Amino acid sequence: MKNNASHITETMIEMIKVSKLYPPDVIALRNISLSISNGEMFFIIGMSGAGKTTLLKLISSMELPTNGLIEVSGLAIHQLKGYKLARLRQKIGVAYQDFKLLTDRTAAENIAISMEVSYKKPQIIRKRVKDLLAQLDLSDKHDTITGELSRGSSSALHWQGPSPIPPP
Question: What PANTHER family does the record point to (predicted)?
Fold first, then answer.
């Protein structure tokens, strides 16, 4: 008998009948259900006020749903606390259209900050930052304040800033 388990796709994000209400009576999301498989790219587009940011905040557990269930990698995120929630958030990559760079810090400092809060050793951080800047062809911007970077360089750096830590 042939094993067909290799054809089963693991669900990365599952939302079942999720709603989010804000006081006094703002309905941000109503009865949203979706399933995103591992390896699938998912884009959220819509009009201003459609609930795109709310959806991202719910998936990363920055906010809790008013109703419904949200699972990420098979874990009900509303049950995660402390270290487990922090580890999950490190694995979720969210790219906002406005750059989330600290404009008073250098390119290297912006990349390093997420590694620092993960308690990585300084020598590992320095090497990883140098390698990432080289990959982006931004080695010459190592000590440049991000507020002085071109839009293109800022964009490239933005993609590395949120999640420069290689998977465990």
Answer: AMINO ACID IMPORT ATP-BINDING PROTEIN, METHIONINE IMPORT ATP-BINDING PROTEIN METN
